[in-house]
Amino acid sequence: MLEEIAEQPEALRRTIEAERGKVERLGAFLRARGINLIVLVARGSSDNAALFGRYLLEVATGIPVSLSAPSVHTLYGARLNLRHALVVGVSQSGEGEDINRVLENARAGGAYTVGITNEAKSAMVSLVDETLLMHGGRERSVAATKTFTGQILHFHMLAAALADGRAEHTNFAAIPEMAARALELRPAVEEIVERYVFMENCVVVGRGLLYANAYEMALKLMETCYVVAERFSSADFLHGPLAMVERHFPVILFAPPGVTLESTRTLLARLKELRADTLVITGDDEAAGACTRALKLPADINEFLAPIPYIIPAQLFAALLASAKGLDPDAPRSLSKVTRTL
Amino acid sequence: MLEEIAEQPEALRRTIEAERGKVERLGAFLRARGINLIVLVARGSSDNAALFGRYLLEVATGIPVSLSAPSVHTLYGARLNLRHALVVGVSQSGEGEDINRVLENARAGGAYTVGITNEAKSAMVSLVDETLLMHGGRERSVAATKTFTGQILHFHMLAAALADGRAEHTNFAAIPEMAARALELRPAVEEIVERYVFMENCVVVGRGLLYANAYEMALKLMETCYVVAERFSSADFLHGPLAMVERHFPVILFAPPGVTLESTRTLLARLKELRADTLVITGDDEAAGACTRALKLPADINEFLAPIPYIIPAQLFAALLASAKGLDPDAPRSLSKVTRTL
Fold first, then answer.
1. Which of A29, A59, B220, B233 has fewest C-beta within 10 Å?
2. Candidates 3.40.50.720, 3.40.50.10490, 2.40.10.220, 3.90.320.10; CATH matching B184-324
3. Contact (CB<8Å) B260/A75
């Protein structure tokens, strides 16, 4: 897992090089075709990547996005009207049967279908109209890291291609370098995890474009450290879960610069009143100063490009915390790499 | 909270009587107008009701549904193309500023807007095209119960009106009686909560039409009992969180008869191998027999009508567990009835 985390800048670079032209042509084709809805279909870590895709695609393109509920198709046999829809399946292995079933249904119903996967020879590739591949090599660790950031990168490229403009969404070419700088936090993370060795519960908070990071970090903590990790947006957190916060219930927050920062600062102030233990991953000095511990990223990583560099310290945190707890992050209890559900 | 839980059959009856005709006319109007997308906008308990609405509306009508991310509108200022969309806001108080902002945006962008609320004089009512009201009286407890089931009921009525047919989705008139029968479980719940007084974590699992029940039960447990309650679909649960299951980490499952039952039985068998402690809310004898404890509902409550009768024992569980823990379910720490977020 640690090796694959470290491979990410290079994997991202290769994926941009290999896929950029194809994604641009796909965007031009879809703009000409005219789509009025984007449906994203995924499970597990890939579903967390899709959650990011949802925010970015809506913000960048103005096209409404729906995160598919696969059981609507696989269990209830619904036939959705998906003419003029783009349906994007996301799967590391390309072998998720339920995801593939939804893609088949959607294509039969008139949708244009795209698969984002790591496996060029998978079942998914054979049934979609277009495939977007990751080029970081096979992922061996059960906990997805480089395929997660590869999927996020594809959403960056797809949003840029569909939006055909607005600079803040389109300069994804800077991401591999940002990822490399995020990896420099490893010694800081190695030191900080010592404090959390006996943590049994926590909540991870993110909002907007970084909401998906909260889900992904929580999933890594559950998979590799058996920490009971809740995840919330800072907005929903105030609607009930706040009642659980106690001194022994740490809150981990993603706080990039940008439009979500004010609400995160408000939440941090409230958490301070409640004497909660807080760990923040941020490029903002004020947020870093308002919490118990901070992992500081460069201040110039803007919110639209933040998901990948901000998830890297979280991946390191999960992998190194597992080691500090005496667990093997590459061999989680009860899990296998491909999960079959229908 | 216990009083309001008990008021539900009568509240549901009154809402059907008062709103049925209006919802039928709305359905006919929308069918004639032609809609190609339904967007649901809500937070907290109301968002859990919307999650049910998402499944039921897609299955019953074939129209794709998207659960809105309010911050796309309120923080990122996106202008979504929502012509031919029906946008439904759900809010107990009708005063959620972010929900109302999304409704305003959507209406300005050409969508037809509907509000589901308990408050006829709220800000929401003044800005939507049509209002669907609940008629169960004011809700005083911070933990929503009768407004949650009132919202679920409105989704039943709306789906029936939009689908204009198929009996399994349309016989919602039976629900108040089913709710009354579910309330008869109170003595059984009162006895069973004793076993969970020292429970600190749990996971709540539901799938498909009952997935929202898992979210809602987890939220009630967090709000009133300060139990760290994870929630998952039985499909996603196998993707990582399963690794956390240990003897002291109980799993609560909703297992109604219907198409999801087989996957729930599979998960129960897996949990038994792992020696997990399981509590199941079910009408199925086999599921009841395969777990540590069961709350048995009548076997003839079909899956399409199950969400309301199945959430009632869960509401009772949260309220009675809070009492058994010596907590006051009507005065959760750190929370107020109306949460303001933007």
1. A29
2. 3.40.50.10490
3. yes
